[in-house]
Amino acid sequence: MRNIKTTTIINEAKRLLIEASFNLPCDVMEAVKSAAKKEISERAKKILELVLENAKIAKKQKLPLCQDCGLVYIDLDIGPDICIKDSSSLNSLLNQAVADTYTSNYLRKSIVSDPLYERKNTSGNTPAVIHTSFTSSPGLHIKIYLKGGGSENCSYLYMLNPSTGEDEIIKLVLDVVKKYVTKCCPPVIVGIGVGGTSSEVVKLARTASFRNLEIRNPDKRYR
């Protein structure tokens, strides 16, 4: 059994928050480069080139990749060999880590305590959305995602019949992308979840959208 202090987790969370805020992942960078080379529209090509230039400036000058610094998602996958000391305070400490990181790095804080009436800013971009899973894989894995409003504004959930086939789902996805793609922030990465309850399928779509772009489903039918 490995004992891990909460301070170790908090320090790693802060590091990942900074990494996500200022550095475009390598797989996304390569995908944008590839898209820019293939693009036949001069306007679209220019936009993709601006995305790459923006990423270089953000990394060099330690500036946010986007003015919308996102809602923070923190996923903790805890293996059977891990014991976290003082785990009862972990969520509050993670939220404090988010607030500290956003403040010290001058990241925009967008979260409000009440979405409908007072709309008072929480002043720390908190609370973060924290998911804890106990897995059969050894070790402790921390994943942090920053999800901005530009992607949330184009999230859609459809309740389909169990008899709905592959062709119908493909058509539905393509129709949605064609209709709403101009309302979200480019470059667009489409995450698709199929099956499960409404709440679970949204989580599947989020997982898919943040997965390394070089990874393909081992089941060829889903590629």
TrEMBL record:
<keyword id="KW-0408">Iron</keyword>
<dbReference type="Pfam" id="PF05681">
    <property type="entry name" value="Fumerase"/>
</dbReference>
<dbReference type="GO" id="GO:0046872">
    <property type="term" value="F:metal ion binding"/>
</dbReference>
<keyword id="KW-0411">Iron-sulfur</keyword>
<keyword id="KW-0479">Metal-binding</keyword>
<keyword id="KW-0004">4Fe-4S</keyword>
<comment type="similarity">
    <text>Belongs to the class-I fumarase family.</text>
</comment>
<dbReference type="InterPro" id="IPR051208">
    <property type="entry name" value="Class-I_Fumarase/Tartrate_DH"/>
</dbReference>
<dbReference type="GO" id="GO:0016829">
    <property type="term" value="F:lyase activity"/>
</dbReference>
<feature type="domain" description="Fe-S hydro-lyase tartrate dehydratase alpha-type catalytic">
    <location>
        <begin position="12"/>
        <end position="222"/>
    </location>
</feature>
<dbReference type="GO" id="GO:0051539">
    <property type="term" value="F:4 iron, 4 sulfur cluster binding"/>
</dbReference>
<keyword id="KW-0456">Lyase</keyword>
<dbReference type="InterPro" id="IPR004646">
    <property type="entry name" value="Fe-S_hydro-lyase_TtdA-typ_cat"/>
</dbReference>
<protein>
    <recommendedName>
        <fullName>Fe-S hydro-lyase tartrate dehydratase alpha-type catalytic domain-containing protein</fullName>
    </recommendedName>
</protein>
